[in-house]
User: Which sequence fits this backbone?
């Protein structure tokens, strides 16, 4: 087992020029804080990691594992042609809310609708980054360009505050083929904030998750069930 520690300041220095343009659209702070760049690490991981590293699993700290993480690594083998990132769906109607203006202008859209047929957006608590595929994907790298980010945020009237998750969600609305959707059991989110903030009528359509949970995600400081 080899452990390599990366310096956050060094990473941020490499990241900032790549993600600076998207920070103003997907950051909680006003404008572009240098330190906010680290919340976009996954977006540009393929640009800053050594070429010999071809696959990475990136996870949040508020997780509890009920299965062997090796089994999650096997999910890389299930990526369809053209997919570069494995990610689970967001399990709250947060993007139903964020895309309200686009949804109002496009009443037939699947954007922000619940699964299985809708596009509820993604949650970045568990990420499979196929760095080699990310490096080789012309489409993915075009989408990192400031002009493309601007174009999509204007099309979807998008203003978020969740960093990489917002970027992946917006790109997924336009180019779902770039993503391999992980089963909800690999990122069983527990936060219920949106149930009490205007969406109780539809909340359960987003929140339900069938199957044996492999990873619990205690997002928004939600307690994780004891064994």
Assistant:
């Amino acid at each position: 087992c080899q452990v390599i520690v990366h310096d956050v300041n060094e990473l941020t220095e490499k990241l900032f020029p790549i993600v600076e343009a998207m920070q103003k659209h997907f950051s909680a702070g006003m404008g572009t804080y240098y330190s906010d760049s680290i919340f976009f690490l996954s977006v540009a991981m393929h640009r800053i990691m050594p070429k010999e590293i071809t696959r990475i699993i990136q996870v949040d700290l508020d997780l509890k594992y009920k299965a062997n993480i090796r089994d999650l690594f096997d999910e890389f083998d299930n990526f369809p042609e053209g997919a570069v990132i494995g990610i689970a769906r967001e399990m709250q109607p947060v993007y139903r809310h964020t895309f309200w203006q686009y949804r109002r202008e496009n009443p037939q859209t699947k954007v922000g609708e619940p699964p299985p047929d809708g596009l509820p957006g993604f949650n970045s608590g568990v990420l499979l980054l196929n760095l080699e595929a990310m490096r080789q994907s012309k489409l993915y790298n075009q989408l990192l360009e400031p002009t493309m980010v601007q174009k999509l945020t204007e099309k979807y009237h998008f203003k978020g505050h969740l960093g990489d998750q917002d970027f992946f969600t917006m790109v997924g609305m336009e180019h779902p083929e770039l993503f391999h959707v992980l089963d909800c059991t690999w990122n069983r989110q527990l936060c219920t904030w949106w149930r009490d903030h205007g969406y109780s009528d539809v909340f359960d359509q987003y929140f339900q998750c069938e199957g044996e949970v492999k990873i619990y995600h205690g997002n928004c400081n939600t307690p994780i069930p004891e064994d």
Summary: Strands lie at 55-59, 63-65, 85-89, 122-130, 179-182, 188-189, 215-217.
